Amino acid sequence: MKKISLWIMIMVCCMMSLTPLSAKEAFDIEKANIEMVVHENGSIDITETYDLKFLQRRHGFYRNIPTVYDMDWNVDGVKEKKSYYFPISHIECDGPYKVEKNYDGISIRLGDEDEEVIGKQSYRLSYRVQTKDLDLDGIQMLYWNLIGSFDTTIKDFTYRITMPKVFDSENIYVSTGRYGQNNNKLSVKVDGNIISGHNTKMLFSQEQATIMVNLPKDYFTFTKDKNYDTYVIGITLIILLGSLILFIRFGKDDEVIVTVEFDPPKDLDSAGVGYVIDHIVDDRDAVSLILKWANNGNILIHDENEGFQLEKRKELGIEANDYERTLFSAIFSKDYIVKEDDLKTEKMSKAMNETKIQIQNHFKKENQVYMKASLVLQCVMLFIVVLPQAIASFAGAYAKYDAISLSLPFMIPSLILLITIIPWILFIRKRYAMKRSTFFILMIVLLICNGICIGAGVILQMQLETSWYVILLTTLVTLGLLVIMVFMDKRSKKGNAWLGQILGLKEFIESCEKDRIEALAKDDPYAFFKVLPYAYVLGISDVWVKKFENIGLPNPGWYVGNQGDVFMSMLWWNHFHYCMRDISKAVCYIPPAKSGSGGGSFSSGGFGGGGFSGGGFGGGSGGSW
After folding, report:
1. Cβ neighbourhood burial of 100 (10 Å; 0-12, 13-18, 19+)
2. What is the pLDDT of residues 120-153, one digit of tens each?
3. How many other C-beta atoms can be found within 10 angstroms of the C-beta atom of residue 585?
4. Residue 473 domain-assigned?
5. Are strands 105-111 and 60-66 parallel, antiparallel or unpaired?
6. Of 147, 448, 473, 563, which is least packed with CB atoms within 10 Å of its CB?
7. Are 612 and 175 in contact (CB under 8 A)?
8. Which domain holds residue 91?
9. What element of type H or E holds 622?
């Protein structure tokens, strides 16, 4: 008896395991009706009606309907993967509802968020789907998931499809079941151009119903996709033309006349040369003033084992600039002799920052290095550079998704490109004060970063199926605009003349021959020290020192160290440049900071032969909220 009871229990468990899982949703679908009107242009007007019985209190009912489909086709034994976008429009519902869009589909939420319902409720929604050519060598069909994936049972389901014209009723296939299954719980009736039917058995949780009607190749005349290529091309060409006009009018530099000469510009000190060459005030520009003061007899530099000392010998002359007086006064504010540690103060740090600002302010109005209009336009060009790709990406996405909110993110690569091109402004201005090897390495790095961003934009446009000629045009114009932006800053007449003189001095330092140097040292024994501040700000002090490596130099009178009366430039500089480094660190010291106190995802499958349940377009899912 016990054995019989045991066998009965085992059989009951097995039978229960074969029974579909109970629904997890808060409602049962008492009745579902799908009405479809198919038009010759491929659009389908769909009306869905659901009679639900809520078992728990909920606000209402929602439907997730896909718009993006990744399909696996099997055409004559050849597998093909295709992606489609079928936009949804003309959404209408009975009662309050809310629509949310994402990249894969839409979510329609029916009901009132301030009210809850229970028991029997009815919901009706309608919408239009614009299908498109399947791109399968003319193959056309209606392949539709009549009922999507619901986590509940469907007791009664009916459907009615009105086709636009005659078709072969022998080419109709239906299937039910979970995704990928090919069961048959659906009846089919054809009356003229109307296909109708109902379920023959209850549909359990996650079971779908799909119909496929194979149609003649010319059955549909699909509407053309939205295309904004003409607008993109027109706007891109206008941007390019306008930028060229602005560049010619405001950005094209006059010819720089470089005269190779020993003397620096008469109205520029070393700090001014450092600013004019790259339009940036570096620490070394301000620190170079110490060498200038030493040459002018204002200070002595004591270079000792315990560290350096600066000694004031006399005040600055009346010809000194404001920024010189600010820095000089800060250094010798307490005593006429200062040590390294005396300069590492917050007061000195503030004075250094003020000095830099005053150097910048000195080159305004009549001393401006660049034309103000060109600098403003260069900043504007930063945004103009990324416009062609940004517009093309947005237009391609908008043509596909028909929603601004979904199209804007496709402009992100262009925004990243904007960030990566900003360094070009600083980089290109420093080209004269930078070693050629360093310049080319940094240029390659920047080009790679820009190329990655532009390439990402191209890939996105290809995914959006943007025309190849639009991609090519926007890419080339973007590169052209980048060049225009880089060289948009135009120097003033005075700035251009200064640049020519500075480049001439730089070329002299780098290329002058030994006999010329020897003659120079003979004519002016202190020439080496006079040019040193300028070589220092131009970053070629090592080159200048090497020119004098075998030439004896007199003690400049402002350096107190371990050298004798005769200097050897290389030996002295190998020691003194460490002293200058320590001076720079002290003067530019930065004190430590003080411590302080519903939507859903959508998917679809493919088909082989007569299709399978859930494998068509449409469908989606639904539930309560």
Report:
1. middle
2. 999 999 999 998 888 888 889 899 989 888 888 8
3. 15
4. yes
5. antiparallel
6. 448
7. yes
8. 16-224
9. strand 621-624
Round to the nearest angstrom and report the end-to-end CA distance of the chain: 50
Q: Which of 466, 486, 506 is the last residue of a domain?
A: 486
pLDDT tens per residue, range 336-391: 888 878 888 888 888 888 999 999 999 988 889 888 999 999 999 999 999 999 99
Structural contact between residues 52 and 150, judged by C-beta atoms closer than 8 angstroms: no
pLDDT, residue 95, reads: 87
Please report which helix (H) or strand (E) contains residue 48, including its range: strand 43-58
**For residue 110, what are the β-bridge partners?**
61, 97
Choose the weakest-confidence range: 2-11, 352-361, 430-439, 564-573.
2-11
Q: Give the mean pLDDT of the chain.
A: 83
Q: Under a CB-based contact definition with an 8 Å cutoff, are residues 69 and 101 in contact?
A: no
Please report, rounded to a whole number, the percentage of residues in the chain having pLDDT higher than 90: 32
Instruction: Indicate if 160 and 298 belong to the same structural domain.
Output: no
Would you say residue 270 lies in a domain? yes
Read off the amino acid at residue 154: I
> Which run of H or E residues covers position 168?
none
Distances (CA, A) of 19 to 9, 200, 365: 15, 18, 88
Contact 537, 274 (CB under 8 A): yes
Domain end call among 428, 459, 486: 486
Q: Do 386 and 422 fall into the same domain?
A: yes
Distance between CA atoms of residues 394 and 407, nearest Å:
5
Give the separation between CA 344 and CA 417, rounded to whole angstroms.
40
Q: Longest Cα pair distance anywhere in the chain, in angstroms?
A: 128
Instruction: Please name the residues in contact with 39: beta carbons below 8 A apart, sequence gap of 6 or more.
Output: 45, 164
Q: Strands, E, within 76-200: which ranges?
A: 78-85, 88-93, 97-101, 105-111, 117-130, 140-147, 149-150, 154-162, 172-177, 189-191, 194-198
Asked if 313 and 301 count as a contact pair (C-beta separation under 8 A), the reply is no
Distances (CA, A) of 70 to 129, 169, 211, 380: 17, 28, 18, 42
Do both 127 and 273 map to the same domain?
no
**In a shared domain, residues 385 and 445:** yes
Strands 559-560 and 617-618: unpaired
CA distance 276 to 496: 9
The CATH number for 173's domain is 2.60.40
**What is the DSSP code (8-state) at residue 247?**
I
Question: Residue 593 falls within a domain, yes or no?
Answer: no
